[in-house]
Design brief:
346 residues, two-stranded parallel ribbon, elongated, binds tryptophan
Length: 346
């Protein structure tokens, strides 16, 4: 019997706050589906988060648990898969350093996501500048076959493929070239209708928002500025409420009917917003219930993190040994007694 080894996924998030609906439709929804078929490593990238919050480490510390809680709440399985805290697996940093030696600086300079992010930073640190390259190491350390991400991350996956190819060419084939997989709604608009949902813009609905907060946020959404009375014909294009209904309302035929009625001035903004807040609250209810369970069982959350990180560390050590063997470094025969002595002293 041929045993087909399960393919590997690595993906991750920076722990910089609670997760929102944009994370769900752009990424988590995919992860939940894929976790059955693949062995998944879900990385809590706290080292990468330092690139944004080196002076606010408290925020990263709090968010590690928040992100783990959000992941458990949406139904990611920490037993069949692995929740990994990046800083507890030093091999990520080690591989990152090694791969940086074969990463052309020009390739980093041309990375469009990094370019636009750097415009928002005052004094770009070397660490931040290096983050796409360190993400390459995150992915390759697990020898991932597939990387489900938001579409802003695509340049980083392209970079990963190039570096994998280059490493394999120089030192021998170790790494697969991973494929990217983008979520169903790559850029969910924020409740302000202006930009992608993002914590820093304050335009989010969080997975952990209670019912009344969701209702308030939906009521604040922009609809159709040309519509003064409820009986005026309404526009669907650019209407934030309908963008959310497109993303979350399951019954597409019924949604089309709502759209037609709205266009004909047959339903008020208040009514259609009620449809949306009901839809979102129904969707969020099981997530809130699971969150409440884990909030009152913190030992379960810790267990998920400890077990996943431990399993990942074993894999990481295996890969890093293979890498060093392939590169023929850190194993100098005539110095082997020095190495032993160093290890003994540690
Ligand atoms: N950059 C991702 C984010 O912005 C987080 C991340 C770190 C990641 N390492 C990764 C994503 C590896 C995919 C693969 O949240």
């Amino acid at each position: 019997m041929i045993m087909n080894k399960k393919k590997i996924i690595l993906t991750g998030m920076r722990p910089t706050g609670r997760l929102h609906l944009g994370h769900y439709v752009g990424a988590l929804e995919n992860w939940i589906k894929l976790q059955k078929e693949y062995t998944c490593y879900f990385l809590i990238a706290d080292y990468q988060a330092l690139g944004d919050y080196a002076e606010d480490v408290a925020r990263i510390r709090d968010s590690v648990i928040e992100v783990a809680l959000d992941w458990l709440s949406v139904g990611l399985d920490p037993e069949k898969n692995n929740f990994v805290i990046q800083s507890y697996v030093p091999e990520y940093a080690e591989l990152s350093m090694l791969l940086s030696m074969i990463t052309p600086k020009g390739m980093i300079d041309r990375n469009p996501t990094l370019k636009s992010e750097m415009l928002l930073q005052k004094d770009v640190s070397l660490g931040f500048y290096n983050y796409p390259a360190s993400q390459v190491a995150d992915i390759l350390l697990s020898k991932a076959d597939v990387v489900p991400v938001g579409d802003d991350q695509l340049p980083h996956i392209e970079l990963t493929r190039e570096i994998a190819r280059k490493f394999n060419r120089i030192y021998g084939k170790i790494f697969p070239e991973p494929e990217a997989l983008v979520g169903r709604v790559p850029r969910l608009i924020g409740i302000d209708g202006k930009a992608k949902m993002s914590k820093s813009l304050g335009n989010c609905i969080y997975l952990s928002d209670p019912e009344d907060v969701v209702i308030k946020k939906v009521n604040k959404m922009y609809t159709d500025p040309t519509r003064i009375r409820a009986t005026d014909p309404g526009h669907i294009e650019g209407n934030v409420v309908f963008m959310y209904l497109d993303a979350f309302y399951q019954d597409k035929e019924k949604l089309q009917i709502f759209k037609n009625v709205y266009k004909n001035g047959g339903i008020s903004d208040v009514e259609i917003k009620k449809v949306l807040s009901d839809t979102l609250n129904k969707f969020l209810q099981p997530i809130r219930e699971r969150r409440a369970f884990y909030e009152s069982h913190p030992a379960e959350v810790k267990k998920a993190l400890i077990e996943g990180t431990t399993r990942s560390r074993i894999l990481a050590q295996k890969t890093i040994t293979e890498v060093k063997n392939a590169m023929n470094i850190s194993k100098y025969e005539d110095l082997s007694n020095i190495k032993k002595a160093i290890e003994k002293n540690n």
